[in-house]
Amino acid sequence: MSPRLKRCFALLVAFATVLLAVPSANAERFSFAAFGDLPYTDIERAELPQLITAMRDSEVAFAVHVGDMKHGSTPCDDVTLQDFRDLLAAAPFPSVFVPGNNEWVDCERRSAGAFDPLERLDKLRSLYFAKPESLGATPFSVIRQSDADFTHGAYQEHLRWQRGPVLFLTLNVPGSDNHYGSQREPGAEYRQRMSAVRDWLDAGFAEAQRKSLPAVVIFMHANPDFEAFAAGNPPRPYAELLYALRSAVLGYSGDVLLIHGDTHVMRVDRPLRDTNGETIERFRRAEVFGSPIPGWLEITVDTEAERLVRIRPRPLRDED
């Protein structure tokens, strides 16, 4: 090879190396945190700043608490609700809250103060969802169902936002019994809220499909008992949600991650079955750590990785 050809070849190799080193213009990589079902005790409340610091050190883009920010027997007074709101508002990253049963449904318990659950839900809305933005020191904008769909104007807590190639949405579906009630037929609050939940779920998936987004992440509090649903016997308070969720997932071409709390068993699995009883591989469920084990889930979105969404459990202590 002549010296001139050698120089040309060397330049081509160098140019190709530079091209390989430069990420794609559409490349996207970020992590976010999910946690919930804590603090239930004063000790756990004292440990929360350590969790926030761990998330900050991991440079999460945002964090989502999926509900139950107090024990079911802890008073549902304004001071308790405000305290946790102040914690999220001071976080060094955007933070989002999803209502659980302990902060509104179960507030009618005498030990919790014998509050009216609907009044407490309205209080949560005024504290956590007063503006179309997240909490945190650097909030981001969100779309509230109350603004996007006037037929469901009360539901400020149903949020949606997009980061990179992923659509995120929150649902007010609390644990225990989803405020279904003890009668065979549910109460008016359940019927109205679940109508809003179904519409918000459908709107989110339609938006993701319209934009050709490859993934949807859903946050809610309740464990709806996928195992009973797979066995053909869904629990009455969650049957409506489970059928709507399965329909939405089957009508969408991308991956779906549902993050919830409620039963305090950290797990990652694929529990949703199609109408033939086959596992829907595109659907994953992740349940967060819960009291008495403090921890969080670190979820990483990386468009250049083999798997777009990866989940890493992060207990606060190694022995947990």
Automatic annotation (TrEMBL):
The keyword Signal is annotated on this UniProt entry: yes
Signal peptide (residue range): 1-27
Domain of life per record: Bacteria
SUPFAM superfamilies for the chain: Metallo-dependent phosphatases
InterPro entries: Metallo-depent_PP-like
Assigned keywords, A-Z: Signal
Protein name, UniProt field: Metallophosphoesterase
Organism encoding this protein: Niveibacterium microcysteis
